[in-house]
Specification:
The chain is mainly beta. It is 7% helix and 53% strand.
């Protein structure tokens, strides 16, 4: 059954059909394996699902509240894990600068009970000189 045992979270400005569909179209969403994990991921104040121009040193924020102890938080860029945190707590928050260029970055959260949350990616465009 596709879609069984999973949850989708949507970052919408209000609880209206138009706002929710607009947020889904902008990919301001994340999914979990049926756990109520709260996940916020931004680069340069742009929400997951966004597309923006790359600039070295852009601020990246990851904020997670798990339903169970968080085993790991991975930053995945261009299909590879570029950084792993192992918080071993219910909450995780990090603010750091993006140090390299990646076309697509997303977050994977794993709890000790093996429930997972995946953010939508943020797409970065390299500016030509």
């Amino acid at each position: 059954n596709p879609g069984a045992n999973g949850l989708t979270a949507v970052y919408a400005k209000e609880l209206t059909k138009e706002a929710i569909l607009g947020a889904i179209r902008k990919r301001n969403v994340y999914g979990t394996t049926n756990a109520r994990i709260k996940l916020l991921f931004t680069i340069d104040n742009q929400l997951m699902g966004s597309e923006r121009d790359f600039c070295k040193g852009m601020p990246m924020v990851i904020d997670v509240v798990g339903e169970n102890t968080i085993k790991s938080v991975d930053i995945v860029a261009n299909g590879k894990i570029i950084k792993r945190y192992e918080p071993k707590s219910l909450k995780f928050h990090i603010e750091e600068k993006l140090d390299g260029y990646y076309e697509k970055i997303y977050i994977k959260v794993l709890q000790v009970d093996n429930h997972i949350a995946y953010s939508s990616p943020i797409f970065l465009n390299r500016l030509s000189k």
